């Protein structure tokens, strides 16, 4: 399974908003500059995120975006499902119930189901806040004299 640029950039954008949650609405150009991502690319990701009420938007001079909820309410799994459509390792697991004609005879299906469960459980256990907390721990003892 490979996560697309759209999924990775959406995660980075939402992490940036989470990190700057106390700064009010954040302009897309500021996120783009901090994350070294094209503003045009972020503009393509915004509609996907807006459909799911993840963001609050404000137009105008002081316009921009901010998270609709607190960072601990967003899981990496939810974000990637929005942007990727699915995080299933094989196409037959994209539907529930499985619509594959071979599912009753497929001896590899349990492997793919197991992999999908491990991936989903892990990604659903990590929140934006967890990532920010890990960043703080990583840099807590990073000082130079």
Written description of the protein model:
- The protein is mostly helical.
- The chain has helices spanning 5-19, 28-35, 39-50, 76-84, 109-125, 128-140; strands at 55-58, 64-67.
- A two-stranded antiparallel sheet has the order 1-2.
- Strand 1 and strand 2 (64-67) form a beta hairpin.
- Helix 1 (5-19) packs across helix 2, helix 1 crosses helix 3 and helix 1 crosses helix 6 (128-140).
- The mean pLDDT is 91.
Layout of helices and strands:
Layout: H1 5-19, H2 28-35, H3 39-50, E1 55-58, E2 64-67, H4 76-84, H5 109-125, H6 128-140
Antiparallel strand pairs: 1-2
Report the major sheet.
2 strands, antiparallel
Strand content: 5-15%
Please count the beta strands (DSSP E, at least 2 residues each): 2
**Radius of gyration computed on alpha carbons:** 18 Å
The separation of the N and C termini measures 43 Å
Structural class per helix/strand content?
A: mainly alpha
Characteristic terms for this protein:
145 residues; mainly alpha; globular
Care to give the gist of this entry?
The chain has six helices and two strands, in the order H-H-H-E-E-H-H-H. The chain is mainly alpha-helical.
């Amino acid at each position: 399974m490979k996560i697309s640029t759209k999924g990775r950039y959406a995660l980075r954008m939402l992490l940036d908003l989470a990190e700057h949650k106390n700064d009010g609405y954040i302009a897309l150009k500021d996120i783009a500059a901090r994350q070294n991502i094209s503003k045009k690319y972020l503009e393509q990701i915004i509609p996907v995120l807006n459909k799911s009420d993840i963001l609050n938007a404000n137009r105008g001079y002081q316009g921009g975006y901010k998270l609709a909820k607190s960072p601990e309410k967003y899981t990496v799994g939810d974000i990637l499902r929005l942007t990727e459509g699915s995080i299933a390792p094989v196409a037959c697991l994209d539907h529930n119930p499985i619509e594959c004609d071979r599912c009753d005879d497929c001896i590899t299906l349990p492997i793919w189901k197991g992999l999908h469960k491990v991936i989903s459980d892990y990604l659903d256990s990590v929140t934006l806040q967890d990532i920010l907390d890990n960043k703080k721990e990583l840099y807590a003892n990073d000082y130079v004299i």
